[in-house]
Amino acid sequence: MRQLFHAGRARTSAILWIEAGAGVLGACVGMTLEWPQWIEAIFSVVPDPAGGEAEWAITLVLLVSVIGLFIAAQREWTRAASVSR
Q1: Among the four 5, 6, 30, 38, which has the fewest Cβ within 10 Å?
Q2: Cα–Cα dist 12/5, whole Å
Q3: How far, in Å, CA of 42 to CA of 4, rounded?
Q4: Which residues contact 58 (CB under 8 A, 6 or more apart)?
């Protein structure tokens, strides 16, 4: 594992940002599932005055983004581990 970090500091930095982005987006998904009105409360914007469809669309986009970032991070970790061997 130690070799993974010394294999390329720039690669490790990229992985860190990918994983941090996934964590932040994941937190937004969780917050939207628990408190759907957080967007209105924080940004003082009402995306849709009625049923909340915009919030669920935002949640879906965030969830797809989280999954994509997790896949990218996993591929990068796997590639970095195979290079360091």
Answers
A1: 6
A2: 6
A3: 39
A4: 32, 39, 47
pLDDT in tens, 33-75: 888 778 788 888 877 777 778 878 888 888 888 888 888 878 8
Query: Any idea what the Cα angle at residue 26 is, between residues 24 and 31, rounded to 5°?
Result: 95
SS3 sequence of 8-52 = CHHHHHHHHHHHHHHHHHHHHHHHHHHCCCHHHHHHCCCCCCCCC
Domain housing 68: 2-84
In the chain, what is the straight-line distance between the N-terminal and C-terminal CA atoms, in Å?
10
The number of folded domains in the chain is: 1
